[in-house]
Amino acid sequence: MSDIGTVLQTAKSAGKKVVGVYCAYAPKELALAAGALCFGLCATKEEGIPDGEKTLPRSFCPLIKSSYGLAATDKCPFFLHADLIVGETTCDGKKKMFEAMADFKKVHVMRLPSGYDGAEEHAYWLGEIKKLKQVLEEELGTAITDAGLRQAIAEQNEERRLMQRLSALMKNDPVPLTGMDMLKLLWGRNFIVDRQDFCGQLREIVEDLERKAVAGEAALLRGAKRVLVTGVPTGAGSSEKVIRIIEECGAAVVYMESCSGMKPFSRLVDETKPPLEAIAAYYLEIPCSCMTPNHRRMEQFAPLIKEYRADGVVDITWQGCHTYNMESRILQKHLQASGNVPFLQIETDYSQNDLEQIRTRVQAFLEMMG
What we know:
By secondary structure, the protein is α/β, with parallel strands linked by helices. Helices cover 49% and strands 11% of the residues. The chain has helices at 3-13, 28-33, 49-52, 62-72, 77-80, 92-101, 119-140, 146-168, 179-188, 195-215, 241-248, 275-284, 295-299, 301-307, 322-337, 355-368; strands at residues 18-21, 37-40, 84-88, 107-110, 226-231, 252-256, 312-318, 343-348. A 4-stranded parallel β-sheet has the order 2-1-3-4, with helices on both faces. Helix 6 links the parallel strand 3 and strand 4. The longest helix is centred in the middle third of the chain and has 23 residues, at 146-168. The protein is globular. The model has no long low-confidence stretch (mean pLDDT 95).
C-alpha cells in the first residue's frame, strides 16, 4: 500500500470518514463540516484510460475514462478509502460514469440546473445542497450544524484568499513563479489530509514569493510573452503537457482560468448570509461550460486580460468534451469582438503522441503575437 494509502487507512481506523468529489461544484464545506476528509478525484494520468475503456466508450473524454479506470481498479487510494462519492451532472459522460461507479461504491449525484441567473435555478440548487447535507449526515453518521458550516466556510475562504494572493503575484513582470509550479500547487491541494497545515504552508510560500517579487527575483525572463490559459481541467500527470510546452517555448503562463486553476478561488463565500444559502449561491455561480448561456465566463475575460497583461489566450479542450469544444468557438468570437485578442484552441487528449504538433502550433502562436 502506498504511503498515502497508509495515512488514509490510519485516519479511517481513528474514525475519520472520507468523501471524494469530481468537480468544483461539489461543496467541500459540507463534507468538512461533517468532520470528513474531502479529496478531489479527477484523474489526469494516461495510465487509467485502458481500464476505463473496458466499461466506457472510447469516445468519452480522457478525464472521465482515466477517472473511472483508476477507481474501478483500486489504483486510486483516495477513491478506495472513500465512504461516499459526490458526483454532479456537468456532462452526460460523467452522469453515465457515476451510474456505472455506483455498482461498486456509494455515490450521490447532485443535479445541476442548466443556468445560474434565475430565482428558480437558485431555489432548485439550494434544494440540492440541502439534499446533500442530509445524505452526508446519514452516510457519515453525524450532524452538520450551522456552526460547523460557518467554520468550514471561514477555513475555505482563508485558503481562497491565499490563492488569490498567490495568483496576484503573476501580474508581475518578470513572474516569480512558473505556470507549471503554480499548476502543481493548485493540483496538489486536492490531496491534502491536514488542511490547516496546508494553509500554513501555503501562507509561507506566498510570503516567500512576495519577498522575492520585491527583490526582483524571477522564474522567467522579463518581457516574456504572457499567456492566459483557459478551458478544461488540467493537472499533474499527463494532462499538463500544453502548459509545459508553452513555458518551454519561452512564454509565461500568468493565469489559469479553469476549474483546476483559479476558478474556485476567484470569489469568496459570503460569511454574512445563512451558511447553506451562501454555499448554494457561491457554487451555482461557477461559470462552467455546462451552463447555458454562460455569459459570466465571457464577461470575466476582458478584466483578466487587462489585469494580468495577457498577450494571448490558449484554450485547452479535451477530445470528447463537447461543451468546452463548442464554447471555445463562442469564446473566440467574444475575444475578437472585445479587442481581437490572439486566441489559440488546442484540442488534445492525455497521450503524448501530439507533443511536437502542439509545440509547433504554440511557437507559431507566440511568433504571431510579435
